[in-house]
Design a protein that fits this description.
The protein is of the alpha+beta class and 142 residues long. It has one domain: Thiol Ester Dehydrase, Chain A. Helices cover 15% and strands 36% of the residues. It has two helices and six strands, in the order ββααββββ. Strands 1, 2, 3, 4, 5 and 6 form a six-stranded antiparallel β-sheet that branches. A hairpin with a 3-residue loop joins strand 4 and strand 5. The radius of gyration is 17 Å and the shape is elongated. It starts with 21 loop residues before the first strand and ends in a 5-residue tail after the last strand.
Length: 142
C-alpha cells in the first residue's frame, strides 16, 4: 500500500463549512422510478403516466447526497425539515441537488446543522427547496 492518506470515512461536525455549496450529480427520472416509489408508498400519481410523486425528488436528493465530493455526514438524528414544492417534476426530467450549510450550533456530543437544499431540474429551475435540521456527531477523540 502506498503512503497516500485515505479519505475519512465520515464527515463530522467540525468538518462542515458554512456557505460552501455541495452539488450532486444528476439523475434522470424514469417511469421505473415512479413505479417502484408508488409500490412502496402507495402514491397514486400513476394515474398520469408522466407525473412524478412530489416526495420522490426529495427522497432521491437524499440518496444523491452520498455522491457529493465529501464523505457522508455522521448524522445522529434527523431533527426536522421545512420543504416547498415549487414546480412539478415529470418523467424524463433530470434533477440534481445543491446544498449548503446555513448555520452550525455546537453542543456537547455534536452539533446542530441547518442545511439549505434546492432540487434543480435540467433547465436550472429550482423545483423544490427547503431546510433540513440535523444533529451531527463530533469527531471521536483519538
Amino acid at each position: 500500500m502506498s503512503g497516500a492518506a485515505l479519505a475519512p470515512a465520515q464527515c463530522y461536525f467540525e468538518d462542515v463549512e458554512k456557505g460552501v455549496p455541495l452539488e450532486t450529480p444528476g439523475i434522470t427520472l424514469t417511469a421505473a422510478h415512479v413505479t417502484l416509489f408508488a409500490g412502496v408508498t402507495g402514491d397514486s400519481a400513476l394515474r398520469d403516466p408522466g407525473a412524478v410523486p412530489d416526495l420522490l425528488p426529495l427522497c432521491l436528493s437524499s440518496g444523491l447526497g452520498w455522491r457529493v465530493p465529501r464523505p457522508p455526514l455522521a448524522v445522529l438524528a434527523f431533527m426536522g425539515f421545512e420543504w416547498r414544492f415549487l414546480e412539478s417534476v415529470r418523467v424524463g426530467d433530470t434533477i440534481r441537488s445543491v446544498s449548503r450549510t446555513l448555520t452550525k450550533r455546537s453542543m456537547r456530543e455534536g452539533g446542530v446543522i441547518i442545511e439549505e437544499r434546492r432540487i434543480v431540474n435540467q433547465r436550472g429551475e429550482t423545483v423544490q427547496s427547503g431546510k433540513l435540521t440535523l444533529l451531527v456527531a463530533r469527531r471521536p477523540a483519538a
